[in-house]
Amino acid sequence: MTLRLSPYLMLNGNAKEAIQFYEEALNGTVLFKQTFGEMPENPEYPLPEEAKELVSHAMIKIGDTELMFSDNFPGQASDIGNQVTICISSDDIEKSKKVFDSLQQYGQVKMPLQETFFSPAYGIVTDKFGVTFQISTEGQQ
Q1: Segment (H or E) for 69
Q2: Sheet holding 108-114, edge to edge
């Protein structure tokens, strides 16, 4: 079982610009980039037109480190000071649950740990110190 922590930048509609900037400034390489419009459609939650070209998830490699990015979904925003979260990746659902449950004590759940199209167990929680973590389980659902 592995556990990896990665910085995750949450931006207000300018993730593509930030990716290009860090790619050039820090000699990074884009490993993955997907817009909300490229994600599988969910008929229960139609995608607003203004979200289709926004970045839903991207990753660039800088040296030995991966830096992740996303634009906030329309109607949500990050303020200066809370636009950086930490993504904790695990390859074990039970470990992800334990980490999520531990971090939510005296904190606030922003998205319950649940199965998504990209992870068998993914959730977002802000701990009691105001630090936001994305818990992501790698592997097949």
Answers
A1: strand 65-71
A2: 29-35, 55-62, 65-71, 3-11, 84-90, 132-137, 122-126, 108-114
Using CA atoms, how far apart are residues 48 and 110, in angstroms rounded to an integer? 21
Please give the residue that has the higher pLDDT: either 7 or 131. 7
Confidence of residue 34 (pLDDT cuts 50, 70, 90): very high
Single out the residue of 1, 140, 11, 3 nearest to residue 85, CA to CA: 11
Residues 111-129, mean pLDDT to the nearest whole number = 93
Do the beta carbons of residue 117 and residue 136 sit within 8 Å?
A: no
Element (H, E) at 21: helix 15-25
Exposure pattern of 115-128 as b/e (b: 16+ CB <10 Å)?
eeeebebbbbbbbe
Q: Is 39 within 8 Å of 118 (Cβ atoms)?
A: no
pLDDT surpasses 90 at 69: yes
Helix segments in 26-116, DSSP class H: 93-104
Nearest to 34 by CA among 59, 9, 8: 59
- Decide: 103 and 86 in contact? Cβ < 8 Å: no
